[in-house]
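Render Molybdopterin-guanine dinucleotide biosynthesis protein in 3D.
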Amino acid sequence: MTDYDAVVLAGGAARRLGGADKPGLSVGGRTLLDRVLGACADAGDTVVVGPRRPTARPVRWAREQPPGGGPLAALAAGLKGTEAALTLVLSADLPFLRADTVRALLAALADAGEGTDGVLLADPDGRDQPLVAAYRGEALRRELALLAAEHGSLAGLPLRLLTAELALGRLPHPTASFDCDTWEDVATARARIRDDGGVLEEWINAAKAELGIELDVDTAALLDLARDAAHGVARPAAPLTTFLVGYAAALRGGGEEAVAAATREAVALARRWADEAADGGKAAAEGPHAPEESE
């Protein structure tokens, strides 16, 4: 994994949302800001530029000068708290951004070589998304300093003045750059999160964040266990068995292997139970321990 720092821009007036605290809006049980922070959880340093808010993981805070001075002023403020060669720059309203997309951006920039200053996400219409991008920190600092010297201040300057001076690559993605600028966007995001195709993953991620769990869970194995327990024993056995697996894993010290081992043992038990039920007691009567007839 490429080392990087992250700068998340969480300011702005959110005028199209009536001045609501956009990064604090909930989508799928988590705030938009926490969803973005989850996607870049392995950053070395994460600086959030904007008013302080509760967050699910620790971050560093910064404010642009003057407050509300726009994206370039906010980016400059955030960069002061970073040192890594690569900087991930994100807006705080990206409900569908995932860690794998972040890794893909960073990998594309690392593979592009020193002649490329950054890699931007491109939306389905081919539009550049400079606030869903990985940059070389040195290039950002250089161009921001030149713009500040030329205009006297970065406040109010459009982001395109920065990106026009950088050598940039593009990474297409169908959903990761979807942002929530209006209440209609928020409603769309909330509906998509609950779509049957991804609702289970969304719920698990939200539950892990709420409970402070970083463990990667083998959901397929646990679902198989729940199915075996429900079908082979009784329907209420499914949630109770998965609870007992988690409890047993915790007693063994936690971690992925503890969960996997407890799951395997419970699956074996559920299958034995089901096999006995299928035999209808016949195996017990005719098994290897039944007495042999005398000659």
